[in-house]
Amino acid sequence: MIKDISNLQVKLQALLQTQQTLDNQGKIADYIPALAKVSANHIGVCVATIDGKIAGAGDHQVAFSIQSISKVFGLVMAMNRIGEDLWQRVNMEPSGQPFNSIIQLEWEKGIPRNPVINAGALLIADVLASHFSASKLAFLSFMRKLSGDESVYIDNNVYQSELSHGNRNAAMAYLMKSFGNIEAEIPDVLSQYFTQCSIAMSCEQLAKSLLFLANKGIDPRTKNVICSPKDAHRVNAILSTSGMYDQSGEFAFSIGLPAKSGVGGGIVAIVPNYGVICTWSPLLNKFGNSVVGTNLVASLAEKLGLSIYH
Ligand code: GLN
Fold first, then answer.
1. What's 88's DSSP letter?
2. Which of 177, 198, 245, 274 is an active site residue?
3. Active site includes 27?
4. Of all protein residues, whose CA lies closest to atom 10 belonging to ligand 1?
5. Catalytic residue among 68, 161, 191, 299
6. Catalytic choice (45, 263, 271, 292)
7. Confidence grade of residue 9 (pLDDT, cut at 50, 70, 90)
8. Which of 164, 197, 248, when mutated, tests ligand 1's pocket best, judged by the most ligand atoms within 8 Å of its CB?
9. What pLDDT was estimated at residue 214?
10. Shortest CA distance to 122 belongs to which of 179, 50, 196, 24?
11. Which pLDDT belongs to residue 2?
12. In the annotation, is 193 catalytic?
């Protein structure tokens, strides 16, 4: 693995150019008006390493809607808060279904397949809403602490849009509550979940925020213990098997990094003992993963020899 990133900046710039010349493939998330309005032309990439280096190109400092990338942070907060009890309420298996599928939930009696599909993230939102007195603020503070940046904010426009188009997520939450797997009131669970999805951050902020997962749970910049080494391992394992939804198998097969996508067009990929890659480009493939972002992570992983399976 290449540890020296001195000329990575140049590599990232060149990489972005190859992607910019590709025909626009994919589709912008249009399930809420606030996301449909985002320009499809944004493209950004950032690499942060555990030894403190940052290289970025394009729109890497422009904030975008982190959407499902927030599921990673919610999971860590819930693991820290309720420990092993969490795994009585959510499984750790790939779903093989789209991220917002409801179909498995009834067969499996309201236990979500994993914490990074919507059903699982709603369950996590319930854990946070039930175990923190000011859970939305606690989440925002966690994101600000991890990124080291107090300017990280909740995009209220996106939040309102999510709330008024949230029927499918509400349906999943009610179904889980009917099986006794949700403690809080459903509006509180949805408000928590949509707040998390509505956080706006840049590639650079996200890459820095996740360095602890590449460093056995310790934030390499502050030396703060964010989670135990065992939980960092568990999160990376879940991201490897489920983080790219029903494209996770192909992603592992061809790229080989724990990763998480969001419908805002962001992708984060963890490179254990090395660092974090974050990309942003809003056009999505049929799985809800950024087309260009997937290409960028693939090229970097190959060029730098980053796959965890080598
Ligand atoms: N807010 C989106 C939803 O709940 C998040 C999904 C995603 O980013 N994959 O449907």
1. G
2. 245
3. no
4. 100
5. 68
6. 263
7. confident
8. 197
9. 98
10. 196
11. 54
12. yes
Q: 241 CB under 6 A from ligand 1?
A: no
Report how far apart, in Å, the C-alpha atoms of 194 and of each of 65, 67, 74, 159, 219 are.
Answer: 11, 8, 12, 6, 26
* Rounded distance from Cα 262 to ligand 1 centre (Å): 7
* Residue found by looking up tokens 């703060």 in the block: 224
Instruction: Respond yes or no: is residue 245 known to be catalytic.
Output: yes
Instruction: List the beta strands (DSSP E) in the chain.
Output: 44-49, 54-58, 64-65, 153-154, 199-201, 259-261, 266-271, 275-280
Instruction: Enter the tokens of residue 14.
Output: 């060149």
Query: Is the distance from the beta carbon of residue 162 to the nearest atom of ligand 1 less than 6 Å?
Result: yes
Whether the per-residue pLDDT at 24 is higher than 90: the answer is no
Contact 90, 123 (CB under 8 A): yes
**Domains of the chain in sequence order:** 5-66+199-304 (3.40.710.10), 68-197 (3.40.710.10)
Distance CA 113, CA 211 (A): 26
Confirm whether 240 is a catalytic residue: no
pLDDT tens figures, 61-85: 999 999 999 999 999 999 999 999 9
100 lines ligand 1 (CB under 6 A): yes
Is 263 among the residues known to form the active site? yes
Inter-residue contact 189 to 129 (CB < 8 Å):
yes
pLDDT tens string 185-230: 999 999 999 999 999 999 999 999 999 999 999 999 999 999 999 9
Average pLDDT over residues 254-283: 98
Q: Is 193 helix (H, G, I), strand (E, B) or coil?
A: helix
